[in-house]
Design brief:
- By secondary structure, the protein is an alpha/beta fold.
- Helices cover 28% and strands 14% of the residues.
- The protein has eight helices and eight strands; from the N terminus they run βαβαβαβαβαβββααα.
């Protein structure tokens, strides 16, 4: 276990971490960076040994009480190893939450997620045109997947073109004219994002990894979070200095 004094840390440990177990998604949505990428993303898998390394660091070294997920720009249930990964996480006592488009979920899988103590199941719904269709689609998923038997929290995420522009990468709506915004962004203080290639990046919009802060294949997760790169990002964005970062200078999202 890493010995550290919370009182002397420059900022708290992250509340959530997302480890992208592989790179593939079965959908191409208008509001997703993947749909506009000039360079096709390879279908690649993060080695299980690397995933397990980080999970053990979280459990054994940090005694992490926050939430862990395995998405970034992928659909986790297209990874045939996902149940094995979830079981490993459960055995470590980690709190796992899931984001999925629901295309591959079955009632049997939901029952297994109960067994694996998944604390939250988020299902993004895209195939609807109006509020009535959205409600019907929700009810269809509830019945089909027997979600009322899910012992922890489940919720639906209203997907669609109303979402943001992913820092200008998604072209489904125009960017504001007054960029860069001089607005603070606290997302960098709450969550750590790790791509399928092991690169930790500034936030969930950093599809291309242009603002890396570390590499889990070479560093401990604690050292990545408290690296000089992350500290600089947090300090600058706490002041609203989005212009300091190429990605943030084009981003109209802020929390």
């Amino acid at each position: 276990m890493i010995e550290y004094n919370k009182q002397t840390l420059p900022y708290p440990i992250f509340e959530r971490i997302s480890i992208e177990c592989h790179s593939f998604c079965n959908r191409s949505c208008a509001f997703c960076t993947r749909s506009y990428s000039q360079k096709k993303r390879p279908v690649d898998f993060m080695p299980l040994s690397l995933i397990y390394k980080v999970l053990k660091e979280l459990s054994y070294d940090l005694k992490f009480q926050g939430r862990v997920s395995f998405h970034f720009y992928n659909e986790i249930f297209t990874d045939p190893r996902i149940m094995k990964i979830l079981e490993f996480s459960a055995n470590l006592g980690l709190n796992v939450y899931i984001n999925t488009n629901g295309d591959f979920l079955t009632s049997e899988m939901v029952e297994m997620l109960n067994y694996l103590s998944v604390v939250q199941l988020n299902i993004s719904l895209y195939d609807w045109q109006d509020d009535d269709e959205y409600v019907l689609l929700q009810n269809k998923f509830i019945d089909k997947l027997k979600l009322n038997d899910f012992i922890n929290e489940y919720r639906f995420i209203r997907g669609g073109n109303h979402l943001g522009t992913r820092a200008g990468y998604a072209k489904h709506k125009p960017q504001p004219n007054n960029l860069p915004l001089q607005e603070k962004c606290t997302c960098v203080t709450k969550k750590l994002e790790i791509r399928y290639d092991g690169k930790a990046v500034i936030c969930s919009h950093d599809y291309y990894g242009i603002h890396p802060i570390g590499d889990i294949s070479k560093q401990h997760i604690f050292d990545i979070w408290y690296s000089k790169e992350r500290m600089y990002q947090i300090n600058q964005l706490s002041l609203g200095n989005r212009k300091e970062f190429e990605l943030c200078s084009k981003c109209s999202d802020f929390i």
